[in-house]
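Let us begin with a simple case.
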Amino acid sequence: MKYLLKRGMATRRTTRISALIQAELGRLTSREQSLEGTLLTFTSVEVSPDLRNAYVYVSTLNEQLEPERILSLLSRVAREWQHEIGARLKIKYTPRLNFRFDANVKRGDRVMEIMHELEDLNPDGHANDE
């Protein structure tokens, strides 16, 4: 991603705005009826140095929801949310919200599942018969 500074080099301002946007998104999600029952988590928000774009990473523990459907729902409300975030944060430029699905949570869960399966195996590679 060309627009981002190297990890750890984000300015205090972009870091602070990212955290504020993430908090506002949580608030907005809780009252959005079209997202009712989806149980979304905004895992991170990365704001470009010029504050024009915010890349919002979202995940869900509900495996029945397809990532494309989630992103479609979020894109429908993005403009309205952007306007509300701008009004609440009172910043000169409100970053354009770009939603992306974050599969890291799902991958992490799968790694933990594999580790638990390995723990249940004896050193000879056979499952415990307990």
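The second case is a distinct protein. As before, the sequence precedes its structure tokens.
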Amino acid sequence: MTVIKSTLTRTLLVLFCFVILTACSEDDPLIGTWQEPDSGITMQFKDDGNVVMSNDKTSISLPFTTQEPNTILVKASTDGTIPDQTIVYRVEENKLILTVDGVDSVFSLVK
């Protein structure tokens, strides 16, 4: 019984350390508010899996997921009537570069 308790205690300790280390890992650099300076379009990637896209007149919130390597999949409709949008992204310092159909758009981090 003592051996089982000892093994269980060690296993729980290892799992606890894993959870703590995972929580301390680097935050997702995509999460935050980004603005394209020429158009004024703002994209706010939230950690709840939604992106809010807005300009000075309107706003829309859509679910997104990230995939490897550096790909964002935006769900434009729940029933599939509007195709999902696949966007390649990279974050360099305080810039978010989104690439759609070979065209780059550069967004700056809003602080």
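The longest strand covers residues 59-67. The chain has one domain: 28-109.
Keep these points in mind for the review questions at the end of the chapter.
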